[in-house]
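Fold it.
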Amino acid sequence: MHVRRLDPILVDRIAAGEVVERPAAAVKELVENAVDAGATSIEITVEAGGRRLIRIVDDGRGMTPEDLELAVERHATSKLPDGDLFAINTLGFRGEALPSIGAVARLSIVSRTVEAETGSAIVVEAGIKSPVRPAPAPKGTRVEVTDLFSATPARLKFLKSDRSEAQAVAEIVKRLAIAHPTVRFTLSGEHITAFTYPPEEPGEHGFLRRLSRVLGSEFHENAMAIGVEREGVRLSGFASLPTYHRGTGTAIHFVVNGRPVRDKLLLGAVRGAYADVMASDRHPVLAVMIDLDPRSVDVNVHPAKTEVRFRDPAFVRGFVVGALKEAITRYAFRASSTGGTRTLESLRPQGAVPLRPAYPHRAHAIRPTGAFANWQAPLDAPEASYTSGLSERQASLPDLAMPSADSRATLHEMEPQAEESPLGAARAQLHGTYIVTQTQDGIVIVDQHAAHERLVYERLKRERASSGIARQLLLIPEVVDLDPVDADRVLSEASSLESLGLVVEPFGHGALLVREVPSALAGGRIKALVQDVADALAEWGQGASSPLEERLDAVLSRMSCHGSIRAGRRLRPEEMNALLREMEATPLSGQCNHGRPTYVELKLSDIERLFGRR
């Protein structure tokens, strides 16, 4: 077969497959054109998920008849005035979007500049362009795409349901709305919950308001501000507290020079920054803008312009990781506000409880509901009993019983200044696991094991970074039997483990002799400690590509669990308060090593609403 030139219309249809793979891609290209045209308001309408209709109306600069005729030609653009591909300051620049869409659908454009008395219109259908004609139009541009992929029916088979395609359109619009908070965005149509994001004022406060509208109102209360600049690269935006997270990474937004991107390098930087404070199967919520010299980033590496390539990727990754870690360290004493909300929801009764007399007869007592539904007091229990601490005399509530609580904290006088502290003053310990504290405007419930686990971990990291982890020599070295593979794995990392305060030696086949342990872990279960270290080494793998610092931190995280206060251990009041004060002084104490919150806070106003007092 001889070599021949393809038909120009066929060339356009092939190119359209790279640029417009689905309706959402067409919406992205058209909205980006509107933003580049200086629009302050953009309205998007879709029908049948965008397959039947896509309409974009903006109030931008508009186009003259001459510009309109050229705009639907291949590689015709107004966005490269000097032809320099290394200094791109606009979202679009190739001149492919409009002709590609026109090659696979019916494309209609009506546009008018502010100086023109009337507008101009052009239609491109299946790659065939009609002449430009006059048309009535307000200032700006209206683009309508109907019967998408009608010229390439085979591509229709690859589209998902209309609802799925509509949701993809909504996701694209949300990402563009985050990238351009000063622009009004309106989306409506079939299979979509219509929304409008009003324009926000420039600056940090306006950006946070736009994020609260797009990412949810709870984000505002759980956001950490980021604003760092170094070597001509500036990071700004907001990231969520480690205890505020999602099950997928769809709420991670990066904007590079005004362009929303989904870049593997940046997503990897986020995972690295949160690795020490969030479970591996959870993802933070964040929106960060990266502004740098256009010559330092290549935006021309992906047909849909969803990925970028940095000139110095190692610097950018390290910069993002460092900025996020600094914010986490600065803010992560706080626990997310959603913890208290979930706690209140779990406490709120499912149905209304009828009122009862103050002294009901036992035979007619109302049965406990909710958490106490399966508990029943002994039939021979005395009608009146006394307990110390939180409980009052129970003669008035003979049928209402509750789980036992160690309330010895109330036997000591509470220091007035302790209640003014962020975590308040300890008032009781429940079930040997949870510390209840009183603050000025509510109560706090602390998981003593999770909190102390984080404190021990941070203490070990500080010791390793300064003078080295303090070690304690065991009076009688302990022999630990392991699987031979695990034993070999631990012995191969003996030098690294020694720097972490754990000194081991071989002691026969599949056995280790432990001579020293970190002082902070003295008294713990040594066999469980060594087994956890072996598991951590297996998880990271021999010769893992992750930085040594991250691997050592992973081992320390496992080790710290064995030096922390165990659940079930009763604490004295002074021990509880000491734990609270150390939490307040320790960064990252708002979550344990596994990313779970160490405490939840309940405001007094919320508790009063729970009991109908407000």
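The first strand starts at residue 41 and ends at 47.
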